[in-house]
Structure formats: structure tokens, C-alpha cells
Amino acid sequence: MSDSHKTSAMARLRNYFLAGFVVCAPLAITAYIAWSFVGWVDSWVKPYIPARYSPDTYLPFPVPGFGLIVALILVTLIGFLAANIVGRAVVGFGERLLGRMPLVRGIYGSLKQIFETVLSNRNDMFRQVGLVEYPRKDVWSLVFVAGEKHTEINEKLDVEGDPLLGVFMPCTPNPTTGFLMYVRKSEIVMLDMTIEEGARLIVSAGLVAPDPKKKIKGPDGRLIDLANPPAGTLPQPARKSRTASSRPNK
């Protein structure tokens, strides 16, 4: 076998390996994270389950995920109880009790506000992805733009016609850490990509960028991903009506 044939064979093997790695690596990492999360919840919940109610007592092997199921049922039950009058009274009493503790009240209040914003009121979350000229001129950083709100910061630094917007500039490759900044609306270049696409761009350090050619504008002006369009967003082709003029002449 000549050297050229050996080189081409090695190149094909390398390409096959890289293709398999691209397929297997995300699956393996996702499975590892999911399995670790299930094991973490089980390690917290299972010790509090009575032995007679645990399937591990009757089976020769532990049942993974049983603690997670119990935790989901308990959280749902607590939410159901907290939604009625008695539950709201108990929750209110507990919050007033925590509000009298100097250190605990700050931690609890901040965490509660964060979870309520993320899980309950999605209108207060980041709405758009933008670019801000940072850390110097002609160098742009990706930011997540929050909605316009009337806050003390806007009152102190108010400029008519050019409001301050709160933006979060995440760090690569961990988008959960970053910097909170207030920038003039005129200094932000708004992008059409979604929050999910912006997060993927940050996590991949710019390697996974959204393709603007795969999107069109819908009836409401928003961009629609042609690869995964929401139901009912794409216009349906008009049906040809059978009229007398379209019939063949005899």
C-alpha cells in the first residue's frame, strides 16, 4: 500500500472518529448530568423514607429515581396546600417569622424573589439579545437585555428619550456568571437571535452561531426558525379553487 493510500485511510478514520465523538459526547454528558442529579436527590430524600415504604427494602438492588419521584410528589403537594387559604396563612406566618431574623431574612427574601422571577413571572426575564461596545471601542460583547423598568437608577440617571436598560453580560463558557450593567438604549445593538441561541453561542465560545438564513419573519414581526417552527406560525399554501374557467374545454 502506497503512502498516499495510507494517509487517506488515516484521514477517513480520523473523520469517522470525530463524527462519532460529536454524536456520543453530548449524549454521554447529558446522561451523566441527569444521572448525577437523580443520585443527588436520592441521597437527600431516601434516608427520610421509612423502610417499609422504600422498594430498596424488598429488592436486592437499589431503585434509582425513587427519591426524585417522592420529592416531586411532596413539592407538588406543598404547592397545592400553599394555594388554599389555610396554606397561605401558614406560609405568611412562616415568612413573617423569617423576616424577624437578621441574617436569614436577607437570604430568604433574595432567593424567593429570584425563583419567583424565573419560574412565575416570565415577563420580567431577559427579552432580547444585544451587543454592547465593551471593554473598548470597536470590541463588542454579547448581553442579555431585560425589559424597561422604572427604577431608582432610571430616576437618578434619567435622560429623556434614551432610557437606561439593565443588561447582563455573561462570561464564556459559563453563562450563569457575569456582570450587571445599565446601558443607554441607543448604545445597544439589538439582535434577532433568541435567548437560547445567545446562550449556546456563549457556552460554545462562539463556535455554535445561529444561521440567520434559516429564519423568516412571522405575521407578528418575530423571527421564526424554519428548522423548528411553532405550530400555526408558517403560512399555509393557498388551495386552488376549481372554477369553470379552470375546467378543460370540451
UniProtKB/TrEMBL annotation:
Biased composition (Basic and acidic residues): 211-223
Protein's UniProt keywords contain Membrane: yes
InterPro entries, per the entry: COV1-like
Parts of the chain that traverse the membrane: 16-41, 61-91
Pfam families tied to this protein: DUF502
RNA-binding keyword on record: no
UniProt keywords, alphabetically: Membrane, Transmembrane, Transmembrane helix
Annotated region (Disordered), positions in chain: 211-250
PANTHER family membership: COV-LIKE PROTEIN 1, PROTEIN LIKE COV 2
Entry protein name: DUF502 domain-containing protein
Species of origin: Mesorhizobium hungaricum
